[in-house]
Design brief:
Helices cover 27% and strands 37% of the residues. The protein is of the alpha+beta class. A hairpin with a 6-residue loop joins strand 5 and strand 6. It is globular and about 40 Å long.
Length: 202
Amino acid sequence: MALSSIGIVEGGLSEAIVTTYHDDGRPNAAPMGVLGLGGEEILLRVHRDTDTFENIGRGGCCVVNIVFDPLLFLRCALVGRHKGSTEIETGDVLRAKVVSAPYLKAASAYVEAELLSCEYVNRKDGFGRVSVAKLTLKAVNTVVLSPFPVAPNRGLFAAIEIAVLLSRGVKKDVKGYLAVIKKTLPPEESEAVVDFVKNFLV
């Protein structure tokens, strides 16, 4: 199945959750942009001081999860290494079929990918000057778990923007995005997201 069939197109930056295994077998999950390179290749820009970088470097693979769950994006962005509790539990994942990495049970689709090359670059971002690894990977198996298409909801995109801002220590504009979430997500879901985010605004 072509990557373009699940929205990962050449030159397009898609938001996804990348999952890997730690060396002790625990799952790790991190939201990040996935750049389509054409064909079956993708590019991830990964900070070198992260579990994701270490796990892909050691295992040579990962899974890219297509997810429509706002709270899951926020959990994976804001908790985990150096941030407190575990972002993802063993019960939230299953082992992928081809690569040695987990996929999220909550994913709508996932891509199993193998590492082709790694290039190191230094750049400035919200964390200051950082060392980033540009990882080129090849999709070796793409699986659709739930029917497409899925109607877009602005609450998901607002949650992604909150995840980006708070992961960089920026609180400006978060309240505006929370207002979008309250307006567009079902009440029970929006309340869970707002309650979670409030912990990072104190």
